[in-house]
Amino acid sequence: MFDWIQRIADWFVFDLLQLEKGQHLAEALNFFIYDTTKILLLLFVIIFLMGVINSYFPIDKVRNFLSRNKLYGFEYLMASLFGVVTPFCSCSSVPLFIGFVKGGIPLGVTFAFLITSPLVNEVAIGLFIGLFGLKITAIYVVSGICLGTISGFILQKMNLERFLTPWVKEVLAKAQKEQDRFVVEEQSFQQRLPIIWAEVVTILKGVVPYVIVGIAIGGLMHGYIPEGFFEQYMSKDNLFAVPIATLLAVPMYSNASGILPVVQVLVAKGIPIGTAIAFMMAVVGLSLPEAMLLKKVMTLKLIGIFFGVVGLCIIFSGYLFNLIL
Amino acid sequence: MRKIIKILGTGCPKCKTTTALVQEVVQEKNIDAEIIKIEDIMKIMEYNVLSTPALVIDEQITIKGRVPSKKEIIALLTE
């Protein structure tokens, strides 16, 4: 599928710049051009597609659907699936949380949404296809959805309402299956397109610098680190690798799009894929800035429990992937 | 008539961009308007928005969850 990009990269490095095949610099540069072109293209396509879905299925509809329908246990899965198609901005997490709770949606279901939405987002999917291929991407997406569903379910069973901040409890007490007069915007695709397009441009602008720096660092490492270098330090048998990788990932949130390309090189050089997936899920899904924002609605204890449960599920999936992949 | 423009947002970069854009338009087009930035989450929730930033003109929610373009703001304020 991407042969033509490889040909462009080959032509540029070996014909135009006259660099010699096999040279470290030439190989690194070739890898950089190939990867950047491919990933930017994929990011563009995925962000655009998600933008279209979201335009027809905005968050208000999701809320109304979840609060209106009795789903007999499937509500966690549905919330998680909705999380995938809804772009997530950590600055919206508080209004979103309150809005869900106000609509009578159980806390655990709200959590399921809050977990999957940042974890499986358009940027992560685009990067994953470009860096790891479709199979690993599918595994990541499916496990992200399961992770949200299961964590949401566990969190619901823990009866955490008592750990909300007082004013949220008040909101909860007054919660009703409130239905806003949700105005369905009857817009044609032509009318929607400029709005979707503007979003695509904004998102791309935000991540492109990180992606390019990440690929550049990855490219350098790719050329200079010998194959299988990490196997001696981080083999599948090392039981501490997965939890350590997960913990290391939490503070790296803001640079997720720059870190994924580097992780891809680490995997190529021998870090087990389960350990890498756990690391990446924690980078994307557990963010400190989000935790800080959530302090307005949750006590520190609840934030701790929330992150703890999600963290444990991530570590568990890391071990699982190391076993089966 | 003086318009009351409210920008709802908890202080994220997108909300700041929106505020700056609205201020720009109001100045350029010489619109008689009062711009109020609402950062208190309890007040924001009274408008029942799930995603910020949201642009409220004369108590009408017009745009939510994204930064509007300058063109859109001009259209909303001059209609």
Give the tags.
heterodimer; A: 325 residues; mainly alpha; 14 helices; globular; B: 79 residues; alpha+beta; Glutaredoxin; 4-stranded mixed β-sheet; 4 strands
| Total number of strands of chain A | 0
Number of domains of chain A: 1
Mean pLDDT of chain A: 84
Q: Name the CATH class of chain B.
A: Alpha Beta
Category by helix and strand content of chain A = mainly alpha
Enter the CATH topology name of chain B.
Glutaredoxin
Structure classification of chain B: alpha+beta
Describe the strand arrangement of the main beta sheet of chain B, using strand numbers: 2-1-3-4
Query: What is the N-to-C order of secondary-structure elements of chain A (H for helix, E for strand)?
Result: HHHHHHHHHHHHHH
> Residue ranges of chain A: pLDDT <50 for 5 or more in a row?
none
Report the major sheet of chain A: none
Q: N-to-C SSE series of chain B?
A: EHEHEEH
* Multimeric organization: heterodimer
Radius of gyration of chain A: 21 Å
Largest interface, Cβ cutoff 8 Å: A-B, 26 and 20 residues
Tell me, briefly, the overall form of chain A.
Answer: globular
Strand fraction band of chain A? under 5%
Active site (chain B): 12 (nucleophile), 15 (nucleophile)
InterPro entries (chain B): Thioredoxin-like_fold (IPR012336), Thioredoxin-like_sf (IPR036249), THIRX-like_proc (IPR005243)
Organism (chain B): uncultured Aureispira sp
Keywords (chain B): Disulfide bond, Redox-active center
